[in-house]
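Quick one, probably user error.
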């Protein structure tokens, strides 16, 4: 197994630990959760770098990496709804975008194409990570950062759809 895939599996293992820390009833839990979330988010870039720089891109990595990323972000957002720190409708839109773009990627894969992450997608993810950490550590007005992330999430979705509209209109 490659180092990049091992790192992705470590990130997967951090998700339940992160969730436990968020839900702990004592104060430092959320700060530890925020630190763990940042660590997990940082490994996302690192595993991609390792896979490409070592020419060790695998099908397992191509499958697991985006799934684990979505699981980490979605888990955090759902927990923030449970803690009444963010409105559910915001999370529904963000998670809905992920389903939409994953579906678009499946359509592309059926055509033998791979849709690489766009710069909008990377900015969207970075903004989501910053907003989630700010919400976890209760930065005043952190929910505004989440609204910025929501706007970038929708812009990213629109960008993917417009850039790949030819895929959507091909006969099936």
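Nope, works fine. Designed sequence:
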């Amino acid at each position: 197994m490659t180092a990049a895939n091992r790192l992705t599996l470590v990130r997967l293992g951090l998700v339940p630990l992160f969730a436990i820390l968020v839900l702990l009833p004592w104060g430092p839990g959320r700060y530890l959760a925020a630190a763990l979330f940042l660590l997990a988010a940082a490994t996302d870039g690192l595993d991609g770098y390792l896979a490409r720089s070592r020419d060790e891109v695998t099908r397992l990595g191509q499958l697991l990496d985006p799934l684990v990323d979505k699981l980490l972000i979605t888990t955090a957002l759902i927990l923030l709804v449970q803690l009444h720190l963010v409105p559910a409708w915001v999370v529904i839109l963000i998670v809905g975008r992920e389903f939409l773009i994953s579906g678009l990627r499946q359509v592309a894969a059926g055509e033998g194409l791979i849709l690489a992450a766009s710069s909008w997608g990377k900015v969207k993810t970075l903004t989501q990570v910053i907003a989630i950490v700010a919400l976890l550590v209760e930065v005043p007005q952190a929910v505004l950062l989440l609204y910025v992330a929501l706007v970038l999430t929708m812009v990213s979705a629109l960008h993917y759809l417009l850039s790949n509209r030819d895929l959507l209109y091909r006969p099936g």
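The CA atoms of residues 13 and 40 lie 9 Å apart.
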